[in-house]
């Protein structure tokens, strides 16, 4: 691991005590002679001038620390992955699947990372979605779904150039293993361990109850075509970005050319997180 010179901070501005936590972390890195780079919201929270736009943080640091929840982390994940920069999510609310490091374990986790412990870095597969000549990268999922007042939509599904089905449903979720515990889980999809090379296709309220969630190889190429016209239909990426789809619009989904590096707590593993988050006995 290269020497850490600059650490960036991305925050949820209204998270409880985020300003004091930010100050404590900056003081910690200051003692280590590591420069702190703030996004604009973080700079404003501390009454400082300047600060970078959120999307510029990953390209200017060696580590990103997210203070907030999973949504805040997802807003930066695709950029950090593309820049090859690891991210630590410090949870300031309910325990998250991505912002999994509790505040009381943050400094212990940072120390382990700075010592070069590879076991605290969880490498997560990402997917690439291409639509209307634009390419998007997602850590959790790619979703096609109908608007609130729209009727059932039809989506033609192809996998590796073979037609699989025409889905009639409220929508379809294409999820990574990381995203299997997000929207896909709510739609009845399976939980998949993050290191499994797979992708999940989970229908949203399918018209035919025989259409069940399907797990396929991460190396497969998925092509989706919207067959419905006259309805509000949207492509949503990690719940953060998206665009409207029209009849015959196609979405191509395949494995991304890079991975996301998530710094986890040395005091808990994936199954501890699952048990805690889902309240398993």
Q: Overview of this structure, please?
A:
It contains 6 helices and 17 strands. It is α/β, with parallel strands linked by helices. The protein has 2 domains: 124 residues, Rossmann fold (3-Layer(aba) Sandwich); 130 residues, Probable inorganic polyphosphate/atp-NAD kinase, domain 2 (Tumour Suppressor Smad4, Sandwich). The strands form 2 sheets. Strands 1, 2, 3, 4, 5, 6, 7, 9, 10, 14 and 17 form an 11-stranded mixed sheet that branches.
Task: Using the alpha-carbon principal axes, give the shape.
Answer: elongated
State the CATH topology of the largest domain. Tumour Suppressor Smad4
Task: State the end-to-end CA separation.
Answer: 38 Å
Main CATH class of the largest domain: Mainly Beta
* Percentage of residues assigned to helices: 10-25%
Secondary structure tally: strands: 17
Rg: 20 Å
Number of helices: 6
Helix and strand element order:
EHEHEHEEHEEEEEEHEEEEEEH
Let me know the CATH homologous superfamily of the largest domain: Probable inorganic polyphosphate/atp-NAD kinase, domain 2
Estimate what percentage of residues fall within beta strands. Answer: 35-45%
The overall pLDDT average reads 94
Q: Strand pairing plus helix content: what structural class? A: alpha/beta
Which sheet architecture does the biggest sheet show?
11 strands, mixed
């Amino acid at each position: 691991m290269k020497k850490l010179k600059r650490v960036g901070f991305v925050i949820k501005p209204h998270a409880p005590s985020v300003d004091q936590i930010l100050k404590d972390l900056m003081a910690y890195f200051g003692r280590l002679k590591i420069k702190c780079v703030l996004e604009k919201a973080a700079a404003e929270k501390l009454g400082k001038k300047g600060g970078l736009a959120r999307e510029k943080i990953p390209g200017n640091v060696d580590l990103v620390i997210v203070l907030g929840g999973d949504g805040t982390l997802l807003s930066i994940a695709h950029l950090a992955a593309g820049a090859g920069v690891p991210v630590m999510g410090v949870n300031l609310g309910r325990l998250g699947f991505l912002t999994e490091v509790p505040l009381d374990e943050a400094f212990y986790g940072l120390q382990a990372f700075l010592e070069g412990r590879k076991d605290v870095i969880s490498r997560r597969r990402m997917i690439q979605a291409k639509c209307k000549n634009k390419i998007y990268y997602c850590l959790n999922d790619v979703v096609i779904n109908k608007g609130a007042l729209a009727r059932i939509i039809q989506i033609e599904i192809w996998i590796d150039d073979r037609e699989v089905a025409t889905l009639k449903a409220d929508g379809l979720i294409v999820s990574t293993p990381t995203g299997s515990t997000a929207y896909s889980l709510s739609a009845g999809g399976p939980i998949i361990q993050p290191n499994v090379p797979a992708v999940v296709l989970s229908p949203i309220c399918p018209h035919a109850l025989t259409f069940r969630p399907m797990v396929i190889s991460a190396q497969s190429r998925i092509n989706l075509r919207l067959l419905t016209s006259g309805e509000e239909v949207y492509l949503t990426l990690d719940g953060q970005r998206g665009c409207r789809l029209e009849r015959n619009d196609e979405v191509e989904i395949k494995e991304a050319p890079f991975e996301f590096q998530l710094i986890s707590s040395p005091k808990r593993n994936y199954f501890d997180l699952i048990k805690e988050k889902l309240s398993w006995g």
